[in-house]
Amino acid sequence: MLSAKKQNLLGLSRAKLNTLFNELGEKSFRADQVMKWIHQRGVTDIDAMTDISKSLRETLKERTEIRLPKIVEDFASRDGSCKWIIEVESGSKVEMVFIPESGRGTLCVSSQAGCSLDCSFCATGKQGFNSNLTVAEIVGQLWWANKNLGGYKDKLDRPVSNVVMMGMGEPLLNFNNVMEAVEIMMDDCAFGLSKRKVTISTSGVVPAIDKMKDYTDASLAVSLHAPNDELRSQIMPINKKYPIAELLRSVKDYMASLPDKRLPVIEYILIKGVNNHRQHARDLAKLLKSLPCKINLIPFNPFSLSDYQRPSGSSITNFRQILLDAGYTVTVRTTRADDIGAACGQLVGDVDDHTLRSDRHKKRAQYKSGKVFDEADNLAVMVDRL
């Protein structure tokens, strides 16, 4: 008979730790102690938790463990950014990226191995989809970043001040695990990050945005990338299910539910000849006039399975100026870590694809490059074009 799998303390929120200790006949403050040992001190050995009695430590070792995702590779960019590849329980590998800036350090966290949405400008979507990450695999990325950047040695200077759920995957399609992971990140007994400094980025899963207000008050970023439904549906298939009007309504409702005044960030990738014309900027300004927001322009970052190109600097400047003249706060995301394949839209990992989409994209790329296929290969390309 197989023994029951031990609970992973790394992925338990304070509420779930309270439940665990109540079952053990212990006081709820034990949950606070364990969270601080794991997330604030970086301890993964239950025996090292010296303010917990030996008998309770023995009980915890019988029923629980602290199991981290495994880092299999790391890369350092010339601009100071870092990328780590971690292996998750499904066998796939996902990527996380740390970006240091003046006065802050931002960690870009993955929520899924692959992605099912297949946005045309994103390398992750070309990998297909394998699995949702567990709470521990999401929180473990922040734990590892703190560990590798020296955060557990110097408690007064934590290297990660901001977390953005903008890595591999669509966070709101892994709703429960992402909500619980974000809760741990913001818990004062864990990482204690401000709700203003934890951002959930979504491609527009409207029903999930509608539910968010019951689970979190984290900040919100929305991948819009087009000023009308026709174009957005071409580059983001999710728009066919949740068109722009529904998406913006859900964003307004979520922002209205927050106790403080915050603005959502509208993310807009700029792709040469696709969505970067002056008229697109004017249409975008008109579209968003009833939604107080900040706009973040993201010049496209090339990758091997895409023919898209980055616009010229003057095109980006012109696009931004039209939005500025319309009264918006507009930033242009500086390309970081592209020398290690870690810029926005470039994360790929190593996904054991369950959708076969990755094979189709590879065949399409080979077809465009003029390679000769057999009959089955040609059929696959034709089907993918339909």
Number of strands: 14
Helix/strand/pairing class, anyone?
A: alpha/beta
Report the mean per-residue pLDDT as an integer: 88
Domain tally: 3
CATH hierarchy: architecture of the largest domain: Alpha-Beta Barrel
- Percentage of helical residues? 25-40%
Major sheet strand order: 3-4-5-6-9-10-11-12-13-14
Would you state the CATH class of the largest domain?
A: Alpha Beta
Which series of helices and strands comes N to C? EHHHEEEEEEEHEHEHEHHEHEHEHH
Instruction: Name the overall outline.
Output: elongated
Work out the strand percent: 15-25%
Low-confidence stretches: 361-386
The CATH topology annotation of the largest domain reads as: TIM Barrel
**Distance N to C terminus:** 50 Å
Oligomer: single chain
Give a description of the structure:
- This protein has three domains: 7-65, DNA polymerase, domain 1, CATH 1.10.150.530; 70-354, TIM Barrel; 356-386.
- 34% of the residues lie in helices and 18% in strands.
- It has twelve helices and 14 strands.
- It has helices at residues 14-23, 29-40, 54-63, 135-148, 175-186, 206-212, 229-235, 244-257, 278-287, 313-325, 357-368, 375-385, and strands at 7-8, 64-65, 70-76, 82-87, 93-101, 104-108, 112-114, 129-132, 162-165, 198-202, 219-223, 265-270, 294-299, 329-332.
- Helix 4 (135-148) runs parallel beside helix 5 (175-186) and helix 9 (278-287) packs parallel to helix 10 (313-325).
- Mean pLDDT is 88; it is low at 361-386.
